[in-house]
Amino acid sequence: MASYLITGSARGIGFGIVSLLASLPASQVGKVFATSRQNNSSKLQELIQQHPDRVQFVQLDVTDKDSVKRAAAEVERALDGKPLDILVNNAGFMPWASGGIVDANDLAETFDMNVVSVHNVTRAFLPILAKGETKKVFNISTSLGSIAHADKYTHLLVPSYKITKAALNMLTKQYALEFVDAGFTFVVISPGWLQTDMGGESADLTVETGVKATLDIMHSKTKEDTGKFFNIKVAGWENKEGPNQYDGTELPW
After folding, report:
1. Which residues cross the membrane (predicted)?
2. pLDDT in tens, 89-135
3. pTM of the predicted protein model
4. Quick one: what percent of the chain has pLDDT higher than 70?
5. CB 3.0-4.6 Å disulfide test: which of 104, 188, 199, 238 passes with 159?
6. For residue 199, pLDDT beyond 80
7. In this structure, is residue 238 part of a structural domain?
8. What is the CATH number of the domain that holds 69?
9. What would the DSSP string read from start to end of 107-154?
């Protein structure tokens, strides 16, 4: 039974991942550390009450180095010598701009959230991950971060998000290259356009559908997949018309 830590767990994809993990049998999932800046989500609080021995809230502001260090220390104490098996860097920021990159006044802030914070969180939890055999890190990205697919997403005015997710993809690849001999697995996942607060009601997929497909990737990928960028797979969406298809294949950088 694997232990998990998910950043940005108060809502959206992060909460969906925690909720689905909590519903799986103990033979598959052990401790689930749900983190966010504040425990002010009634849904998360209710989930923790339903699974007090399985889901534990950990206060974590991913943009605050001191908060990251405190969270890592708290998780290490809670695990009591056991490893953290899987880290999911999910917390992210997607600001809209009035135009293209020239109008993106929030690039530095978005870069700090979507790239630097992932680096700091990963670095802080590496020693706890290294204690075990699983040693998996999944970074939640997006097909909007694919440079090869940039042309078909020009209508989406989120340039800082696109730029920083492309940088997150490279960060993941660099970690994969550096820690391949230590047995780590670093994988990027595009979870699809989901009906979250960020994605909106008109998005392609429900949170439940996207999260299940995301977990399918997490549970199937091994060390041989380290450094790769995967799309989720959803039946009926493999050859869908429009910009988004969900075929489970490796996405181009």
Report:
1. none
2. 999 999 999 888 877 889 999 999 999 999 999 999 999 999 999 99
3. 0.96
4. 100
5. 104
6. no
7. no
8. 3.40.50.720
9. HHHHHIIIIIHHHHHHHHHHHHHTTSS--EEEEE--GGG-GGGGGGGT
Give residue 12's region: left, alpha or beta (phi > 0; psi -120 to 50). Answer: left
The angle at the Cα of 141, spanning 68 to 227, to the nearest 5 degrees, equals 90
**Number of domains observed in the structure of the chain:** 1
Alpha helix (H) ranges present in the chain? 12-23, 42-50, 65-79, 107-111, 117-129, 159-179, 207-220
Question: Is the Cβ–Cβ distance between 47 and 21 less than 8 Å?
Answer: no
Q: How far apart are CA 41 and CA 39, in angstroms?
A: 6
**Count of residues in the chain:** 253
Q: What sign for the dihedral angle of Cα 44, 133, 68, 96? A: negative
Q: Read out DSSP for 6-20? A: ESS-SSHHHHHHHHH
Please report which confidence band the pLDDT of residue 40 belongs to, taking 50, 70 and 90 as the band edges. Answer: confident
Q: What angle do CA 118, 96, 160 make, to 5 degrees?
A: 40
* Neighbouring-strand partners of residue 87: 5, 137
User: 224: exposed, middle or buried (C-beta count within 10 Å: 0-12, 13-18, 19+)?
Assistant: exposed
- How far apart CA 249 and CA 253 sit, in angstroms, is 13
Q: d(Cα 160, Cα 150) in Å, to the nearest integer?
A: 13
Q: Is residue 101 part of a domain?
A: yes
Is residue 62 a contact partner of residue 68, using CB atoms and an 8 Å limit? yes
Rounded CA separation 37/114 (Å) = 15
